[in-house]
Each structure stands twice: as structure tokens, then as C-alpha cells.
TrEMBL record:
TM stretches of this protein: none
Database matches in InterPro entries: FAD-binding_Monooxygenases, FAD/NAD-bd_sf, Flavin_mOase-like
Record keyword NADP present: yes
Molecular function (Gene Ontology), one example: N,N-dimethylaniline monooxygenase activity
Protein name: FAD/NAD(P)-binding domain-containing protein
UniProt cofactor(s): FAD
Organism name: Massariosphaeria phaeospora
Phylogenetic lineage: Eukaryota, Fungi, Dikarya, Ascomycota, Pezizomycotina
Any one Pfam family match given in the protein's UniProt record, by short name: FMO-like
Amino acid sequence: DTYAEELETEVLIVGAGLSGVYLLHKLRKLGFKCKIYEAGKELGGVWHWNCYPGARVDSHSPMYAYSLPEVWKDWTWSERYPDYAELRKYFEHVENVLDIKKDVAFDTRVVGAQFDKPSGKWNIQTEDGRVAKSKYLLLAAGFAAKRSVPDWPGLDKFKGEIHHSSFWPDDGVDIKGKRVAVIGTGATGVQFAEETAKTAASVTVFQRTPNLALPMQQKALTKEEQEKAKSQYPDIYRNRMTTFAGFEYDMVPSNTLDVAPGQRETFYEKCFENGGFQFWIANYQDLLFDKKANTEAYNFWAKKTRARISDPVKRDMLAPLEPPHSFGTKRPSLEQNYYEMMDRKENEVVDIKKTPVVEVTETGLKTNDGEHREFDVIALATGFDSLTGGMKTMGLRDVNGVPLSEKWKRGTWSYLGMACADFPNMFFLYGAHGPAAFANGPSCVECQADWIVDAMEKLRKEQITYVVATRQAEEEWRRKVTAISDLTLFPDTSSWYMGTNIPGKPREQLGFVGGLPLYKKECREALDNGFHGFTVDTAEEGGVQ
Ligand code: NA7
């Protein structure tokens, strides 16, 4: 019984999103006794939480899906970039095929966990006072489990509707004819603004940094074309694990300035036409490494985007002539008609780098130039304590009782982006030091989860009861993550990749930016070399030395 006050299991997984569902399915098939604790009410992770207007995935079909044939064989997408409602249906389909929910306790938030050496088990506490004991703890809570809200005075005073994007009411908010404010211009802010602008009286975007958004090129998909393509799916899914960012396309092996200007222009045009992230991660190979190459790409982006905005003031705010940061060192959003929507005269862009918000009032927002704007709805699209926030607020303690939030206070240490020293029999995925931030979600999930599953099979085969990363391995991994990042343009830009979106969070590279193939190789070597970088013990349960 998943809801029992005391649960004994072999594997406790935290989170029933893309990662947790896949892990449960794979491990259960191998005979591991598994349970999931999930804070929400349904499967689907981010797609359970994010139901704001316009919420949709930025990875195209069939990239954003499991590679499992039993799941894709009877599934059809209606759009190239499906929205949250369709993704929720996808998870219903996954449930019908894989029968996941019988092993999930919903409404169950983990607030504490510590490994007990004498018993060789994790003791896990939930918010409502239940306890679980488990030999393994697998953290699959995603990179956006901890939302970030500005610390503006008066946030609780606003009398209209105010919600963080990841906590949007499930039954929606009436937007029609309303004055809407959007704070933030990340993936969420852009999607929210372009969608609500269709029916709202006005949309005011409070922008700190312009999003260098790319054309999505959304398209309806037919069942026939998908059925025809399915014979190639095994190859497509195999191939996506061999590219830098886990898509079917990859960086082009030429340097930007070696290509003749006319040819380069044609290539850039093609990337825009094809849409999605192609201009970002199927661009010339030096885009994210070389400043001059990057500026070339930026100039093209600005030329294309500025041509879509007739208002000269908005044009300079949304797509300035000078790059606000190197292109692609912050995540570009995918847009459908964001620039046309914002260009409309009823909509406004407020530069809150110049005139920051100083107060939320009962009726609106005040900026430091004394302006007070009135709204009916405020959407906080202000993002997350990404990659580390979820794990830091889960009450995790190491074997000696030291909280993970302490260990990660001055920086993040992990081994392979999947294990931590002093946290035995624990693996995590889709978080810090892994490829999550730069890869297609399911590719990253399957890459890391397959490794965890292989590791657990090996542990069982070799009768290992205790496995823990060494501090030295952690130090080396952190150095590697940083050294790879230092070869790129990422460190110069403030972004959630670098941890700088959260006040007080250390500035450091939080993602593995060396690409999926290199990441896979590093992880594979650790396993093949007999758990290199880990300490293992085969003592009987209760007798860990
Ligand atoms: P993001 O990408 O973190 O975007 C958050 C946005 O909110 C971004 O434009 C921030 O400006 C802005 N922001 C954050 N805090 C503040 C404060 N205090 N004041 C003003 N503006 C603020 O989150 P999203 O939800 O859009 O996307 C998260 C990921 O989910 C996304 O990358 C996809 O992988 C899916 P900044 O840029 O920091 O100047």
C-alpha cells in the first residue's frame, strides 16, 4: 500500500514526471520493488504543474516523447509543438500502456531524507508525517521544482488575480478583455504574452532582459504522416542520443566566418525556416564558443526580428541593435507571433532594468520612475531556482546529518550529475551537472535513467549493498563541468544556467555543456571501470563497514 504510514521498499523514486515514470517502468521490469512519491495529483511533472495560457513544449514531435515502442506505436500528436493539455493526454496514454499509477503515492511531498548506515536504508519523511524506508533513493523531481518569486513589497496586497506560471489555477483565469501584466521574458513569459494578447484588453510585459526568441514554425500534424514515419522511429530515437543536444539535428562542422557571407545568409535563413532550436543548436559549430561568430548570428537574428516590429521604441527594446548577451547563452524561447503581438498599440513593454518594480499595490505595479500601472491579472513568469533548488529544499541530509542545502551553499558538487559524496545509494537525474539544461528533455532523461538502471543492475549482480561517490570524484567532475563551460561563451552571461537568477546563489556553471555523446561516454566509463569514482561495499544489510 503506497499510502501506508510506514512504507518499506527497495527503491523510492521522488517525482512522477518524465524521469520518474521512466525509471519506475524500467526498474520494475527488472524485478526491483519500486514506489514513487509525487507532490502533485497526477503524472506528468512540469505538464502537471504548468497550465498557464500558451504553455507548450519547445521540442518538436516526435523528439519530445519516450523511445519506448509500446508507447509510441499507438500514439499520435496533433501538433509539431504540443501544448500542455496534449502532453497531459500523453501521460494518460503512458499510464494506460505502462500501468504506472498503482505504484505512485500522489499528494506526497518529501520533506526529509537521510541514509541510516546501521540498517543500510534511507529514512524518508513526507510533509504529512508518513515515513518510508528504502534501500535506494532516486531523485527525479526535475530541474524546475522550486519556483522563484520576486521579493517585491506588497505582493500579497494585489486584489486582482496574481499567480506564478507554474501554479496557474487548473480551471484557468478569465483573461478576455482584462489588463494583463507579465513579469519575465523567459520561455514562459513569451508563451504567456503571445497567447493572452489574443483576447486580453492589453498585455504589459515587464522585461529585464530581451529574449532572443526564435520562430517556432508550429504546424498541425496528421495521423497518416506519423504512421508512415513510424518505421523510422527506432532509428530516429537511436540517433537522437548521438547528437550534442539530443535532437535529430546537430551542430554544423564549419566555422561561421569560414563560410562566404551569401552562403551563410542562406544557411541562417534555412534555420529560421525550419524553425525550433535549429538556429541555436544546429548552427555553425563555433556559435557558442567564438564571440565574432556569435555576433554574426545575433546580427542576423536582430535583422529578422526588427523587421517584424513597426514601433521604433519597442523595436529597440525587444530586439536591440547591440546584443544584450551572446546569442544562445540564455535559452531562446520559441515564439509564434510574439513580436507582432507586442507591436500592437494596446500592448506595452516596460524595461525594468531601467525602471525596476518597487511595489505591488492593490491595483497594480509601481516602478521607480513613479509610474503606477493598473492590472486585473499579474502573471509571475519569473522562473525557478533551477537545477539545484528542488533538491536543496527536499530536506536531504548526508550520512552525517549535514543538509544538502549546506553542502551546496557555496557551490554545487556532484559526481556525473547523478550522485553526491556522503549520500550513499542515492542517484538523481535531470538536475545539476548533467545535460538537462541543454538537451531535449526525453533524450536527457533516457540517457541518465538508463545509466542509473544499468548501475543498479550491476550493483545487484555484484551483490553490492552500498555505493557512494568519492569526494575526489566530485571535485574532478566539478572541475570538468567548469573547464568545459570555460571554453564557451556561457560564463559571461547571467542566466539560470549560471545560477545568477536567484539572489545569493553562487555564480557557477550548473549544466554539463559538453554535449550528450561526451556525457554518455564519461558515465559509461565510470561503470565499465568498476564503479570508478565510487566507493562500494558488499557487506550484508545492517553491517555496512
Ligand atoms: P526563466 O527562463 O528563468 O525566465 C524568468 C524570467 O523572469 C526572465 O526573463 C527573468 O529575467 C525574469 N525575472 C526573474 N526574476 C525577476 C525579478 N525578480 N524581477 C524581474 N524579472 C525577473 O523561467 P521560465 O519559466 O520562462 O523558463 C524556465 C525553463 O522552463 C525554460 O528555460 C525551459 O527550459 C522550460 P532575466 O532574464 O533574469 O533578466
